[in-house]
């Protein structure tokens, strides 16, 4: 991959860039879009080749199996993290938001308090509320530009609630979002997007 190649995705129906102003009040002409997990680099050639192979078949039906995907994840966990993850433990979802809801519905009960460490991806709080659980924020603290857990505040917040909460849902790495930036106290939130002069 060429990480030095700049691909200007503004005005290309890119949610990351073309919806940024609606979410944050910062124009894509003046800021850097850092609010959604979306790359601004060209996809590697092997991925493009795989997509071309599907296009050449001209048939986009459902796939029969995700065995290869789960085996690849198990390989990655074993190679990268030394964790022998069994592919049979894994299941695919239609996206992160769906996965969050599935975990909440499986492991928690309606009315439970769910701890999240803010600032974090806004979909956690949204899905917690949609699933009938209560959001319990344990704000991270920032020191020298680095976020840290506030263990005292976290422990103090574990007071119980619902039928057995609050339960813990952790995102690692935590990805701060614009909703959290707007809500964060002065001096503890994210820095505002910087001008993107290099994008012209």
As for the CATH topology of the largest domain, it is Aspartate Aminotransferase, domain 2
Structural class: mainly alpha
Estimate what percentage of residues fall within beta strands.
5-15%
Order of helices and strands: HHHHHEHEEEHEH
Q: Order the strands across the largest sheet as they lie in space.
A: 2-1-5
Mean pLDDT: 79
Q: Would you count the extended β strands for me? A: 5
CATH arch. level architecture of the largest domain = 3-Layer(aba) Sandwich
What labels describe this entry?
Aspartate Aminotransferase, domain 2, three-stranded parallel sheet, 3 domains, 8 helices, Aspartate Aminotransferase, domain 1, 200 residues, 36% helix, two-stranded antiparallel ribbon, mainly alpha, globular
Structural overview:
There is one protein chain. With 200 residues, the protein is mostly helical. The chain folds into three domains: 1-61, Aspartate Aminotransferase, domain 1 (Alpha-Beta Complex); 65-92; 93-183, 3-Layer(aba) Sandwich (Aspartate Aminotransferase, domain 2). The chain is 36% helix and 8% strand. The protein has eight helices and five strands, in the order H-H-H-H-H-E-H-E-E-E-H-E-H. A three-stranded parallel β-sheet has the order 2-1-5, with helices on one face. Strand 1 (113-116), helix 6 (122-130) and strand 2 (134-137) form a beta-alpha-beta unit. Helix 5 packs across helix 6. The chain is globular, with a radius of gyration of 20 Å. The two termini are 23 Å apart.
């Amino acid at each position: 991959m060429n990480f030095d190649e700049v691909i200007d995705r503004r005005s290309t129906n890119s949610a990351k860039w073309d919806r940024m102003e609606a979410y944050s009040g910062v124009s894509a002409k003046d800021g850097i879009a850092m609010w959604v997990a979306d790359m601004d680099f060209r996809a590697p050639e092997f991925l493009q080749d795989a997509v071309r192979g599907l296009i050449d078949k001209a048939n986009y039906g459902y796939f029969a199996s995700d065995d290869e995907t789960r085996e690849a994840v198990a390989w990655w966990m074993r190679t990268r993290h030394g964790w022998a993850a069994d592919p049979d433990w894994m299941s695919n979802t239609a996206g992160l938001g769906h996965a969050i809801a599935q975990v909440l519905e499986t492991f928690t009960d309606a009315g439970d308090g769910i701890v999240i460490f803010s600032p974090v991806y806004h979909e956690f709080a949204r899905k917690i509320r949609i699933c009938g659980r209560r959001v319990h924020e344990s704000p991270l603290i920032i020191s020298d530009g680095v976020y840290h857990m506030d263990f005292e505040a976290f422990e103090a917040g574990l007071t119980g609630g619902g039928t057995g909460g609050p339960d813990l849902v952790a995102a690692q790495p935590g990805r701060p979002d614009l909703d959290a930036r707007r809500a964060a106290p002065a001096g503890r939130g994210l820095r505002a997007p910087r001008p993107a002069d290099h994008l012209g």
